Amino acid sequence: MRQYLVDSGVPAGKLDTVSFGEAKPAVQGHDESAWKWNRRAEFVAVFLEDGELGIAPGHTPLVGRLGFGEMRAGAGEEVERFYVEGGFVEVAGDVVTVLTPYALPAAEIDAPVARQRLVEALARRATSEELLARRDAVVAQNRAQLRVARRAE
Question: What is the Cα–Cα distance from 43 to 30, expressed in whole angstroms?
Answer without folding.
Answer: 23
